[in-house]
Write a structure and sequence with these properties.
The complex is a heterotetramer, with 2 copies of chain A (438 residues) and 2 copies of chain B (375 residues).
Chain A (H helix, E strand, L loop, with lengths): L12 H15 L9 H5 L7 H18 L17 H11 L7 H4 L1 H14 L2 H12 L5 E4 L15 E5 L2 E12 L6 E7 L10 E7 L5 E6 L8 E12 L3 E2 L5 H16 L27 H7 L6 H30 L7 H23 L5 E2 L8 H6 L3 H4 L4 H12 L30
Parallel strand pairs in A: 1-4
Antiparallel strand pairs in A: 2-3, 3-7, 4-5, 5-8, 6-7
Helix pairs in contact in A: 1-4, 6-7, 6-8, 10-11, 11-14
Chain B lengths: L6 H17 L2 H7 L8 H9 L20 H14 L6 H14 L2 H13 L4 E4 L15 E5 L2 E12 L6 E8 L2 E8 L5 E8 L6 E12 L3 E2 L6 H36 L1 E2 L2 E2 L4 H30 L4 H27 L10 H13 L4 H11 L3
The chains are: A alpha+beta (438), B alpha+beta (375).
């Protein structure tokens, strides 16, 4: 599925690529390693995220002006109405340029929320928001996870209560990346407590500066931030800002997750962060990219067969990760594997990250846990503290294994006692009290 | 394994698969356990008629491949043979045919290739030695020139089908460099000592050269210039081996997954237990990764890519570790029946474990990757 | 619990030990490594098991004559009526002597079936069989596992039908060690199909040479045998030969399993195969004991840091296995851990064996899969084929993990749809047809 | 960790535990993250009153232990401190006190031990160097004699509490052998450069000796004869470290198991999912094995057993691998909350990961075991 109609004449991909290459060269500076404000922020304290966001918005605006924004989005919303091949061609060419970090910064907006809005949003919502996304005005986030919910996204207990032409939302969301500098959110809230959990949820558009909505950056084990927790205290949104149908929010959330998986697997038709393989050691990778060969040399281990094998093992995992990514794109495109096969890549990336993190610790030895200088996060051991993050965030490895075994392999589903119960009868976790609230 | 095949390739795979099902069922593999040769020459000839030995030989030399990318077609055959743990000298014959086609003199090509391609003759590569190093540095067997002839002394080991081969392609040390010789079986001064093998049907031998003398015409390629040929031979051998291993593991995984869906324990299919489901998920991930790296490295070798040496070693390092681990976990998932002779699992485990160790173990190839990374 | 009464005067352990030492020295030849016919048989083809059994029976008879058989069994059944401490003292002293393999060969008989008979057998059965066990006349086996059952021992489908004063048994058992040279078996069979599975089973004494009972040695992946499969075709046993109550066979089987676990953990009070730690790399170990340091040297890897670490890792696992065994004995004796903690040791031994087997393969390299000589089982790769056996036999590692998580840690039990159903309504595997039967 | 305690030991553990709960709750540990010293001297003095620094010092020198087996009592304290990731110089002070008690001259014992035992003074062991080798062969800092005094040049690194210590026990190279010196803080020519540390409260420093001169009376033991002392110091350090690590992991496992029993997902406690149950089972197995090897090696060191060097390294090799793995899996089982600053898991992970790397990694100790196995 692409956003073009077959009746239109479409520019040839190679001619498009040539135009893009020329334009990029005239417009942007070349860089060796494009900035990744999102990944970097998880490690480094004190990065100015508002400046990052401003730069990314500017980059996206320039793309729009050059005619290279929203390449596969319909023209009526400010897109170019082209095909995935054009998108991939453009991204491939753009890899070497500094686009202000707009690639990663707009990944969620244009790769997940935009496509979902396009599929399920009302005409009014699409007209209101899609052009602003494409021209770099607004960054979007998703409010799915809750402190009480863990992996069980459909067990959301944030409540939305109808009040005339509005809904009033109260509750808490967590693990929202980018909420502290973005503009709008998709918010999943419970609108009916008397039906089973998947059938009482509704998805709302919530402006991040709405009264009653408080966004708190979450401090991570590394000392840095990068995710937020939000507290909704009677936040009022218009009933017209429901995405999809009332009580059909799970459908919307499911589409979001599909788009997320596609984006991670590099298979998105709407926003392609990098087809060149530079994110090959897992799109969810966090922490520094360490040159392990250099580390081994610096630690005097270049002649040690055990250390040499560790260096090679990490390299093998990175190479195979890239090869697997490419294979799975083909397999899902051909229908040899179902879309859920994206979970295979997520799981591979996470487990490869774990192993690479262990290898890094082993090669760094004492110097990884005690180090000179003033920087408390300079030691490689600090990255080790965050080792599991890639195996937890955006769907834990346990959830990925469930998905693979049930939806790729067709093994029987786990018994879920809550599946058919009215939600108010389901055993769930209680919301921890907020310090100072009530 | 390869996801996108040309129509010709589909047909080729289908033909090979049907031939193997008919001519080499697992009951036949079991019978061959007692056979000192391990395969039937007629079976091999008829396989060769399907094209099993032509793929790396250009058409003008009597070969040809269905897709034009011979190594990728060979990969497909190797995978099918892995799926049925089929017998036969696929790897050594193709390695030697490839070397002759690339580096042999026209008279050698003339004399040898037709027989190899038709399956009438069998040749094998005598490279490793009792030190069991699978790199050029491990070649100690010496060749010295005397009056236009060459005298070979030393021992080659782990030589597949050594006893049945009509020729051995021998990698020898000539001073600081390597030279290869095509030595006919029966040459005086050469003896073959059979070795035992873990695989049900694959046979190996030591080939001992005790001052054996061969004519100067036995040299393949230029004297002292075999390094590139040896690298190519290793790449071809590893491509075949990786494909075969991956084919075997794909098949084991398939029937184990089926078994888990059917087999009941405590009133539920064992495949409904989450701990097992998650292991099947992990195995699927490793298996797709094995497939991915096998095909990616085969393509690199086919294309003669600069990074082919690293990608081939990467594939072997990954597959050599994961493949036996997956098959062993499939044994575990079968329970007691999985460690009986009567179950077919061990036929696969033997092949996969043997492949893991030959042509360089995962460890050896990690060290090669490290060297290529400059450490 | 020991089999002595407190009113009797009991010989001091040290004086008993001194007597034992003297007697052993006079009676038996010293050996470096005592013969282990049972473990050896799993690897080596063609071992004469009947001769092994005869030698073991002779050894046991000599123990009986010397007054050192059945040390903790009651005197009325031919035992010595002493305490576990005496047993352990004797075994410790006996380690260095060739007792004809009676230790391992009578391990099941005196460590599992004897104790269970003592606890649950009728007076008649005890009087009939215990003295013969202790004086070395009879070897016993257990018929629990079935081809259709796997880990689910209580799902037995071998049937026993009442016929006057007899029962008629038909079905099949498998994974019986020693059935081809032993004398009697405990056989678990279903006597009521209309109650849930645990409540319709009965345990019978079955003579191994009973008409209609066929014992077939099972060929293993290594080419060797060591276990048997049995086919019961209308085997008739007297109703008096039921152990415990009719339809209460699961209680008997459970006690057997407890005694088995104790025997494995070295905590049996009835038969102590070896307290000296020589079985420390797992009582379930099969395959050759390989000197890995020697292997590394022979393969020219003595200066290779990776290989040196592998050698050390295997040694570390063997050492920790011994230390864990000792700790768990103390912990269960003190009640710090429940008896089910024996599963921790079984699991450790199995996983350590797997790792050690992998290390052996890695160190042996090409020479493990291709080797000189005439012996098709000489290659170390042949042991690798049997790597999983320790993780499967006597309770799979999956079952051990269930036991640990549920009975040691108190986590919720797995849903078992068959637990409360009448057995005939339970979905179970069908018995594969025997070649030639019907 | 130890399963059978004497009554006196029970009381001792109980007293220590209550003290730590009151004086060093995890909130206090968090506060100390910002403290350059990492612990409060008064807290340490009051801990010492409980006997934290007396255990390796014989009664006649002002020490004493509750059980008479001082190292086993020390192990108990270390375990409790691990359970609460408590701060303080337990390891270095006890290592130095032990060395002085065993090898010090009476005047050194007189001058130093009372202060260490009472907690008034703090001493630390300056052994490793920037090469981060944790064996005698890694000692490069040289000491040379000049007119009855000794001149020290070189750099010690990874020195715990280097900046706050009143004395450093310095292991120096004197020709082919080792000699140890007790050097007072403030000695001219010695400077301390603080280092950053992964642990919340444990501080380290480089101690740089730039031709620093100490009197001959600073020598501890005999000149050139420190090898046995160094081996003993490593054994004591590893015993304390292993006990602390095991205590920390025991605690993490406890609260993670509780969490899994309480935390609901999809209408069930997460501890009811078989995949997680099996991981808890594996972790319990590893954890019992960690406890087993820690206590067995402590007993061997206490007894001065011949195999103490091997058992101590075995324990570190096992625990150094398993402990971080268990804690990381506990992080995974907690989900997102487990990677937040607000959750206490990282306090433990920091301590455990740091311990894994210091005083020799699992790798280093495996190599030592290999050497002891003759390979």
């Amino acid at each position: 599925m692409t956003a073009t109609t077959d009746t239109e004449a479409v520019e040839d991909v190679e001619s498009f690529r040539a135009r893009a290459r020329a334009w990029l060269g005239e417009t942007f500076a070349r860089v060796d390693a494009p900035d990744d404000p999102i990944g970097d922020r998880l490690r480094v304290e004190g990065r100015d995220v508002h400046a990052d966001a401003e730069r990314a918005r500017m980059g996206q605006r320039m793309l729009r002006e050059g005619g290279f924004a929203g390449i596969t989005y319909p023209k009526e919303y400010g897109g170019r109405g082209l095909r995935a091949a054009h998108l991939h061609a453009f991204t491939h060419e753009a890899r070497a340029y500094d686009l202000g970090g707009s690639g990663p910064m707009f990944a969620m907006t244009l790769g997940m929320m935009g496509p979902t809005l396009l599929e399920l949003g009302s005409d009014d919502l699409k007209a209101r928001y899609l052009p602003r996304m494409i021209q770099g005005d607004d960054l979007w986030v998703q409010f799915l996870s809750e402190p009480t919910g863990g992996s069980d996204l459909a067990g959301a207990v944030t409540r939305a209560t109808r009040d005339g032409e509005s809904y009033v939302i109260s509750g808490s969301k967590v693990w929202t990346s980018a909420a502290d500098y973005s503009d709008f959110g998709f918010c999943l809230a419970r609108t009916d407590w008397d039906v089973p959990k998947h059938r009482g949820l509704t998805m709302f558009v919530v402006p991040l500066r709405a009264p009653g909505l408080e966004v708190i950056p979450l401090r991570l084990v590394t000392g840095a931030t990068g995710f937020c927790q939000e507290f909704f205290d009677n936040v009022v949104v218009p009933a017209a800002d429901v995405i999809g149908e009332v009580n059909d929010g799970w459908t919307v959330a499911s589409r979001l997750l599909v788009h997320e998986r596609n984006a991670i697997a590099g298979g998105s038709e709407f926003h392609d962060m990098d087809t060149g393989g530079t994110r090959a050691d897992g799109p969810e990778r966090v922490g520094r990219r360490v040159d392990l060969a250099e580390l081994a040399r610096a630690r005097g281990l270049a002649d040690d067969s055990h250390s040499r094998q560790l260096v090679a093992e990490a390299d093998v995992l990175a190479t195979v990760n890239r090869q697997l990514s490419s294979r799975l794109q083909t397999a899902t495109a051909l229908g040899v594997l179902p879309p859920a096969a994206g979970s295979l890549l997520k799981l591979f990336g996470s487990t490869a990250h774990v192993r690479t993190s262990d290898i890094t610790m082993e090669l760094s030895g004492s110097s990884g846990v005690v180090w000179p200088g003033d920087d408390r996060s300079a030691g490689l051991g600090v990255d080790f503290l965050f080792r599991q993050a890639t195996s937890i965030l955006s769907g834990t490895s346990e959830i990925q294994r469930n998905i693979i075994s049930e939806r790729v392999l067709g093994l029987p589903r786990e018994p879920a006692p809550d599946r058919d119960l009215p939600f108010r009868e389901v055993r769930h976790n209680t919301m921890p009290k907020r310090a100072g609230s009530e | 394994m390869e996801l996108e095949l040309q129509d010709d390739q589909e047909l080729f795979v289908e033909t090979t698969r049907r031939f193997l099902e008919a001519e080499s069922p697992l009951t036949r593999v079991r019978d061959l356990y007692e056979d000192p040769v391990g395969f039937d020459r007629d079976y091999w000839r008829r396989g060769a008629e399907l094209g099993w030995a032509t793929m790396l030989v250009p058409e003008e030399l009597g070969g040809g491949s269905v897709s034009g990318a011979g190594l990728l077609d060979l990969e497909l055959v190797a995978e099918e043979m892995g799926r049925t743990v089929a017998p036969g000298p696929l790897l050594p014959v193709n390695v030697v045919a490839d070397t002759l086609a690339r580096s042999g003199r026209p008279d050698q090509q003339e004399a040898e290739l037709a027989g190899l391609v038709s399956g009438e003759r069998i040749a094998t590569w005598a490279f490793a030695e009792p030190s069991s190093r699978w790199d050029a540095g491990g070649v100690a067997l010496g060749a010295s020139e005397r009056d236009g002839a060459w005298v070979l002394s030393g021992t080659k080991s782990y030589v597949q089908d050594a006893a049945v081969a009509d020729e051995w392609l021998v990698t020898a040390r000539t001073g600081d460099s390597l030279t290869q010789f095509l030595v006919a079986a029966g040459t005086p001064g050469v003896t073959v000592a059979p070795l035992q093998s873990l695989d049900m049907t694959r046979r190996f031998g030591d080939v001992v050269f005790d001052g054996a003398t061969v004519d100067g015409s036995a040299v393949v390629g230029r004297v002292g210039d075999a390094a590139a040929d040896v690298e190519r031979q290793l790449q071809v051998a590893l491509t075949v081996q990786n494909a075969e291993t991956v084919g075997a593991v794909n098949r084991v995984y398939e029937f184990t997954l089926e078994y888990a869906q059917d087999r009941m324990a405590f009133g539920r299919p064992i495949g409904s237990y989450q701990a097992l489901k998650h292991r099947f998920a992990d195995m699927k991930m490793w298996l797709e990764a094995c497939n991915a790296t096998a095909t990616a490295s085969a393509r690199a070798v086919q294309a003669g890519a600069d990074d082919a040496p690293k990608l081939v070693s990467t594939a072997k390092a990954y597959i050599g570790d994961r493949a036996p681990a997956i098959v062993q976990d499939c044994v575990q998932l079968h329970g007691g029946i999985g460690v009986t002779w009567e179950h077919d699992l061990h036929l696969y485990l033997r092949r996969v474990a043997q492949n893991a160790a030959l042509y360089g173990s995962a460890r050896d190839h990690r060290l090669r990757v490290a060297t290529l990374l400059g450490v």
